[in-house]
Design brief:
By secondary structure, the protein is α/β, with parallel strands linked by helices. The protein has helices at residues 3-13, 27-36, 43-54, 70-73, 83-89, 120-130, 150-169, 188-208, 235-249, 266-280, 294-304, 311-329, and strands at 19-22, 63-68, 93-97, 102-105, 108-114, 134-141, 173-180, 217-218, 256-259, 288-292.
Length: 339
């Protein structure tokens, strides 16, 4: 474990007012979104779409790192340049999603655990050789009747911690993502309690594995009521609950925090991040930024529709959405300039 290299990578990922772009959709997820947009679900169209993303002019002004999928890290542009090389040339650090998806938890089939630890050390070594300098592992926590169970929170935290340790042994910065899902009708207070419990257990397990916290990035959900809740939280309520939860559960030495959008609309996720910096900017012990996927990509995907003639317009909206999130991190976002 090269702690100096881990700190350098984490610092670069969290630098300035930039954030991370998650472009690591699995094949089923990518194909589902393509189907919804009327785009052929083929490897070539996935390559064309990812080419659109990595070649977007000015993307590096808002994005410091891009999380790739296994298929993507081997793909190239039309002229044969590897995507990973395009990113490096633009000053964007390549990362890689390494979990292998979720399965039903034995004994609690309404809950999920994440696969991918078997052979992970070999895969990480290969990804480092290809140029990846950070990785991501996602766990999902479900809120429901009697859920989550203590066993599920612990099982997911243990897997995240083991993954993080393996990453650092290969000098790769781990992003740990214990996502509390928005699915359900739970209140913001219930989301707070579950998110706090999940993050606290995660750091207990990270400590047990000897994970170096300055070389680690946490990717949490925002604290918000469930999608089916009758109560709509204000921007201030979400911002306050989220930051207060993190302050109560995340050690100050962590290298950074980068939010997932978790099903929020692009504008909602941006507004919430902005308000956190307005209210707590000088009280945050760690850099606080974004690691959005759909909240940055979806408008571009909807505009592209798989057509070459739409690439430039799609790239413009992609860069615009990323710039809005960068402005939010700086506390300079305004709904008056958003679309």
């Amino acid at each position: 474990m090269n702690k100096e290299e881990l700190i350098q990578t984490a610092t670069a990922l969290m630098a300035g007012d930039k954030g991370l772009l998650a472009m690591d959709e699995s094949l089923p997820t990518s194909n589902k979104r393509f189907a919804e947009a009327g785009i052929p679900q083929t490897e070539e169209y996935r390559r064309k779409y990812r080419q659109l993303i990595v070649t977007t002019p000015g993307l590096n002004e808002s994005i410091s790192g891009a999380i790739l999928f296994d298929e993507t890290i081997y793909q190239s542009t039309d002229d044969g340049t590897l995507f990973i090389d395009v990113l490096y040339k633009a000053g964007i650090i390549p990362g890689i999603k390494v979990d292998e998806g979720t399965v039903d938890m034995p004994g609690s089939p309404k809950e999920k655990i994440t696969n991918g630890l078997e052979g992970l050390d070999i895969r990480l070594n290969n990804y480092y050789g290809l140029g990846a300098r950070f990785a991501k592992w996602r766990a999902v926590i479900t809120i429901g009747d009697g859920l989550p169970t203590t066993a599920n929170i612990k099982a997911n935290a243990e897997a995240l911690a083991k993954y993080a340790r393996l990453c650092q042994e290969d000098d790769i910065v781990p992003i740990v993502e214990p996502e509390v899902l928005m699915d359900g009708d739970h209140t913001i207070d219930r989301c707070y309690a579950v998110t706090e419990a999940a993050i606290k257990e995660l750091f207990i397990q990270l400590d047990a594995q000897g994970v170096f916290l300055p070389g680690l990035i946490l990717k949490p959900n925002m604290v918000i009521a469930g999608r089916d809740s009758k109560t709509k939280n204000s921007t201030d309520e979400v911002a306050k609950a989220t930051v207060e939860c993190l302050l109560a559960s995340v050690p100050p030495e962590v290298g950074g925090v980068a939010f997932l959008s978790g099903g929020q609309s692009p504008q909602e996720a941006t507004r919430h991040l902005h308000e956190m910096h307005v209210l707590f900017g000088d009280k945050l012990p760690w850099p606080l930024t974004f690691s959005f996927a759909r909240a940055i990509q979806q408008p571009a995907l909807d505009l592209w529709k798989g057509k070459d003639e739409n690439v430039v317009a799609a790239q413009e909206i992609l860069a615009f959405r990323a710039s809005m999130d960068s402005a939010a991190r700086a506390g300079r976002y305004s709904v008056d300039i958003d679309i």
